[in-house]
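Hi V.,

You were right to ask for the full record rather than a summary. Here it is.
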Amino acid sequence: MKKENPVVIVEGRLQRKRRETHDRIAKAAIKLFRKLGYEDTTMDAIAEAADVSRRSLFHYFPSKEDVAFANQEKFLAVVVEEMRRQPMESSWPALIECAMVHAIVDAASPENIAINKLVRCTPALQSRYQRKYVLMEQAIASVLVKRSNGDAASRTRAELLAAIFTAWFRIATDDAGGASIKGHGDAQQKVPEAFRQFWQSLLAFGEEGLAYHAQQDYLSGNPDSLAAKKGSRKK
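Predicted structure:
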């Protein structure tokens, strides 16, 4: 199969200026959050540090919480875009891993690592912090469904894989707290290995589950299952 052709968007002068202003505000806010803490940083202070008016600040970010999560929302957008870029013949596990590795390595800057730690440690941000995992699960499942034939079985399979992966990603992220990754190069080495361990864990669980069912079939004398086993042994 052919690769999906990504839509190429040409950024105009106005769009570039808006993006630069958006990024400048986010960077100024991150510096203030790291220096003063989230609670003690005001929107007025962010506007002054970013050299924008209060009105312009609220145009880009309606609340201080929106500023704090600017980079995390960008992360999910990168994941989705990278999934769409992968060849249509890619397996779903490969699709997710390639996109996630790219997004994690891209986001593994000292600034992002610091703001992620701050967000996790700020009680006022926990609700939105946990919501990002819900959005991630939905986004991944949506991309997978669009790459399937759209029947009920494919949708269930897509939602299951997205849910399992997101649960693992949440546990791995919260346990490590980003402390095990020091930067882009470090992430490029450690993230693929983490995925390898994840897939190996799923395989082990699957084998244990099938072994349990084989044992139950044997104990119950399930004729269909026993016949299937005898047939497979003859082959």
